[in-house]
Amino acid sequence: MRDLSASGERLLEVATEVFYTEGIRATGVDTLVKRAGVSKPTLYAQFESKENLVATVLDRRRRTRQEALSRFLAESGATGEERLLAVFDWLAEGHGRSGFRGCPFTNAAVELPDPEHPARAVISGYKNWLRNTLARLAEDAGLTEPDELGSDLLLLIDGANSRVVVADDRTAMGRARSAAARLIACARVRAPGTGPAPAHHPPNS
Predict the structure, then answer these.
(1) In Å, how far are 67, 94, 127, 137 from 132, measured between CA atoms?
(2) 167-204, pLDDT tens digit by residue?
(3) Helix, strand, coil share (%) of the chain residues, nearest 5
(4) In the chain, % of residues over pLDDT 70
(5) pLDDT number for residue 198
(6) Lesser CB count within 10 Å: N end or C end of the chain?
(7) Which one-letter DSSP state was computed for residue 48?
(8) pLDDT confidence of 122, banded at 50, 70, 90?
(9) pTM for the whole thing?
(10) Cα(186)–Cα(180) distance, rounded to whole angstroms?
(11) Rounded distance, CA 31 to CA 91, Å?
């Protein structure tokens, strides 16, 4: 994380809000510096380019979200499989907040298709961290194939986030939680002599 001046911090704060509410591609440098009350040379001195500013915005979001989820899990008192479902509870809480417009990382990925854009590494890093966190929680809970389960649960999360953007559906994460509970039940290790685990059927679209 680069060291920023007070003007740089102000610009970063404004960019974080405007990129999320109005879009990255729709927001030009002139708009950013005007709203932040700084000059163009300040933007380029602090971030070198708009592309790097976008990456810095997302990287700060990444660190903030990772710390917030880790703290939520630590303070939730949940254990075992409950910790996996607690991730969905935390996300559902965010969905209910005023101004929520979907996952900022997914939204940014849609706007930034160039794989060489510096923000793409930040987006991938956050998504990989979330998938690995889910896989680790699944492993800690003693569930079978935790890596595959982590990927499946991330698909549910991404789908629920997309429903907010497509249909302003604020209940989607709650339904994703219910689907996650069914996947978790299928991934439980069966005791010897109890027969095969139930067939894994994907949740309905």
Answers:
(1) 15, 21, 9, 9
(2) 999 999 999 999 999 999 999 975 454 455 555 555 55
(3) 70, 0, 30
(4) 91
(5) 54
(6) C
(7) S
(8) very high
(9) 0.89
(10) 10
(11) 31
- Alpha carbon distance, N-terminus to C-terminus of the chain: 40
Tell which phi-psi region holds residue 143, choosing left (phi > 0), alpha (psi between -120 and 50) or beta: beta
Q: Residue 169: name the closest of 114, 101, 107, 69 by CA.
A: 101
The owner of tokens 């680790």 is 136
**Which tokens in the block code for residue 200?**
């894994």
**For the residues of 109-167, what is the DSSP string, one character each?**
HHH---TTSHHHHHHHHHHHHHHHHHHHHHHHTT-SSHHHHHHHHHHHHHHHHHHHHHH
pLDDT of residue 200: 53
Residues in the chain: 205
Give the C-alpha separation, 65 to 157, whole Å: 15
Instruction: Give the pLDDT confidence of 59-69 residue by residue, as tens digits.
Output: 999 999 999 99
Residue appearing with tokens 């997302």: 58
Average the pLDDT over 99-118 and give the result.
96
Which amino acid, 76?
S
C-alpha 203/C-alpha 5 separation (Å) is: 49
